[in-house]
Amino acid sequence: MRELLAIYLKGFSMGTADVVPGVSGATIALIVGIYDRLIQAITAIDPRAFQPALNPTDPEARAEVRTALERMDVVFLLALGLGISTAIVVLSRVMHVAATTYPVPTYGFFFGLIAASAIVLYRQIDRWTRERIFVSAVAIAIAFFVTGVTTGDVSHGPLMVFVAGAVAICAMVLPGVSGAFFLLILGQYEYMTGVLSEFVDGVLGLATGNALAPVIESGTVVSIFGVGAVIGLFTMAHIVGYALERYRAATLAFLVSLMVGALRLPVEEVGGNLGETALGTPAIAIVAAAIGVGAVLLVDRYTDDLEY
Q1: Which of 53, 244, 278, 288 has the fewest CB atoms nearer than 10 Å to its CB?
Q2: Residue 30 neighbours by CB under 8 Å, 6+ apart
Q3: 4: buried, middle or exposed (CB in 10 Å: 19+, 13-18, 0-12)?
Q4: Cα–Cα distances in angstroms (integers) from residue 192 to residues 25, 92, 150, 223, in the given order
Q5: Using one digit for the tens of pLDDT, what is the confidence trace for 271-307?
Q6: pTM higher than 0.85, yes or no?
């Protein structure tokens, strides 16, 4: 139980990082020493290994299932996933209120997190070739264009939510790139944190006799996002992992340059909300950005010797 509690708390710290655009949950996994175990467990998952479970009366079949579960480290994944989920559920409400009620300091903070993360990750590219410069420029242009579109009226339909889940889950295997950052760039951050808060409120409200309809409505969106995350974990995450293994510098240059191009979004959010509240001043935005930069540099200081 002590080991499971420790894993749960490490998962909670990962989930906390993934709610905020900047430091990724994978970076936290490196810090707390479970990154390798996490990747091994994810890549060991094979749905075909559960076929013997269709014959539960056969002792040999049950033994095969137990062996498969141990090989896939399922207990570890469940404890870690519960910790991550708890952090996301608890903190998404805080971040949603912050982003919608105090947009200037919140997006100023996001700007500092993203900008500092990009600088830190750029240092990992030892040599800039023409190809890497080209890839970086393309990524900046793509992110700049996409965030320009998503700052307006962006779709929150099932397909977009599904894609957002599939893309955001990559943060679990990519140290340095946050899942919340991907939601931000796709224009789904405020929407998904709000929907998750509505779902939790609806579930809790059932105990006091509230209607079931809001739970079904928000729960459907959360489920679609979850399905996208599961599929993304076994498709996009593996594709990105393969690209990092074969073309590490170019892939890293592309991913980090997305962060640079996406800085357009927090800048426009800050600029568009100046003066809306007492905290909506340029000075507050600068202070918040400085705090974000400091947070990333502090994490980088204690993870500088880790192998990404």
Answers
A1: 278
A2: 175, 303, 306, 308
A3: middle
A4: 18, 9, 14, 11
A5: 888 988 888 899 999 999 999 899 888 877 766 665 5
A6: no
Q: What secondary structure letter does DSSP report for 243?
A: H
Of 138, 105, 51, nearest in space to 291 by CA: 105
CA distance 4 to 1: 5
Distance CA 173, CA 62 (A): 31
Give 124's DSSP letter.
T
Question: pLDDT category, 145, cuts 50, 70, 90?
Answer: confident
Q: In this structure, what token pair is assigned to residue 51?
A: 């076929």
3-state secondary structure of 271: helix
State the Cα–Cα distance between residues 252 and 246, nearest whole angstrom.
Answer: 11
Alpha helices in 45-186 (DSSP H): 59-71, 74-101, 103-122, 130-150, 158-168, 179-185
CA distance 117 to 112: 8
CB 76 within 8 A of CB 234: no
The H or E element containing residue 281 is none
Q: List the structure tokens of 91.
A: 């903190």
Longest Cα–Cα distance of the chain, Å, equals: 69
Residue 77, token pair as written in the block: 């994944």
